[in-house]
Amino acid sequence: MGDLMPERCGWCGTDPLYMAYHDEEWGVPQHDDQRLFEKLILEGAQAGLSWITILRKREAYRKAFHAFDPVSVAAMTDAELEAVLRDPGIVRNRLKVFSARRNALAFLAVQREFGTFDAFLWSFVGGVPKVNQPRTLSEVPAVTPEAEALSKALKKRGFTFVGPTIMYAYMQSMGLVDDHLAGCWRKAP
Fold it and tell me: How high is the pLDDT of residue 181?
């Protein structure tokens, strides 16, 4: 049994970092606000890029954005954000970098309104993960009505880089949706 690899969703390929992300994070229900904030910022940074690119840069993002503490990110000055733009370890896109502060401020406002960002976020799936039954990658949607509703609610509250496709990827990664393929060892029973 030593050489047998567990069956995984095909999108993660054979890159060890990608496989670890699939095995340990993607689709695992997450309720920690700081982790939810981290992934919200990283998903926005990923827009137009491959997820593996962002995974490879995640540690640099953690350093640049104060380990994704939303209070610290909300307090970042323009000068600090300009310094982040010079960091070759991250995606140096001005709109994406400056959106981290804007999203941190909006995130803190949601926490004040709902008690936690977790409570707000999970309300879009009734508090329990939505388990889909895709057999192939082509059966996994790029967007759903829940993702559209989440995107609309976030935009209304001042968030940026939170379009419906980005929000569906976010919902998948944070475990609000289980889109592991049939046969994948991570698939919920």
Answer: 94
Q: The domain 30-178 belongs to what CATH superfamily?
A: Hypothetical protein; domain 2 (1.10.340.30)
CA dihedral 61, 82, 40, 62 (to 10 degrees): 20
Nearest to 60 by CA among 18, 91, 101: 91
DSSP string over 20-65: HHHHHTTT-----HHHHHHHHHHHHHHTTS-HHHHHHHHHHHHHHT
Residue ranges of the alpha helices (H) in the chain?
A: 16-24, 33-46, 51-64, 70-74, 78-85, 94-114, 117-122, 145-156, 164-173
Angle at 131 between CA 119 and CA 38, to 5 degrees: 45
CB 76 within 8 A of CB 105: no
Q: Computed over its alpha carbons, how large is the radius of gyration of the chain? A: 17
- CA dist 101 and 75 (Å) reads 7
**What residues are labeled active site?**
21, 43, 51
**Strand partners of residue 131:** 178
pLDDT digits (tens, 9 = 90+) for 150-186: 999 999 999 999 999 999 999 999 999 999 999 999 9
